[in-house]
Amino acid sequence: PTECFLSQPEEKQESTVKAKKRKKKKISDILQKSAPKPGVPADLQNLLSQYFGESRSVIEKEELKLPDSCFLPANDLTHSFSSYLKEICPKWAKLRKNHKEKKSVVMLVICSSALRSLELIKSVTAFKGDCRVLKLFAKHIKIKEQMNMLEKGVFHIGIGTPGRVKALVEQDGLCLSSTKYVILDWNWRDQKLRRMMDIPEIKKETIDLLEMSIIKLCREGSVKLGLF
């Protein structure tokens, strides 16, 4: 009887573990089979209102709302990164030529990781023409190096993670007054099928960055926001 009694919890534990394994597999199966749905401005609006929930007053929430006029056409998942940028910014050659300011970029691209930033830097070649692109992520690059580069040279495109971009803005290493376009790498999924806004830390840093300065600039009309 004792042996019987001892073996029962073990069997239960085993079946629970198996059930958990099965459940995990099922979720990833669903994600793999579900057709990708391109992000639209309403997705970002909903995300912001959910994120701030009850923690902000009605007036504060109103100030965080982005009118439709703030948004560029969203990627319908048929574009490469370069072809998307060509569509939303047909006058890039002129903007690039006229940009002379240091400590700033004309276009800022926010994505979820350093590796993804490098991918986008490679894939922007067909669009960028004769312009300089700056890596804005933390991996293997000190913030002081980036601040020195921004102070000494003229850069047209900055591609990086929200955490490092936010730190550069806070430390006055990067000024957004000359920025015309902010692109969020919205639709791309990592190996675990997570988009940038599915990763809690990246989501928080992106929303902090938006709240800190980008939403205000969008509402003033100086910055346009795109979801790639």
UniProtKB/TrEMBL annotation:
Alphabetical list of InterPro entries matching this protein: Cms1, P-loop_NTPase
Q: Which domain of life is it from?
A: Eukaryota
Report residue spans for region: Disordered.
Answer: 1-21
Classification via Pfam families = CMS1
Which Gene Ontology CC terms are recorded? 90S preribosome; nucleus
Listed transmembrane segments: none
Write down the SUPFAM superfamilies for this protein, in alphabetical order. Answer: P-loop containing nucleoside triphosphate hydrolases (SSF52540)
PANTHER family (UniProt xref): PROTEIN CMSS1 (PTHR24030)
Protein name, as recorded: CMS1 protein
Q: Which organism is it from?
A: Pitta sordida
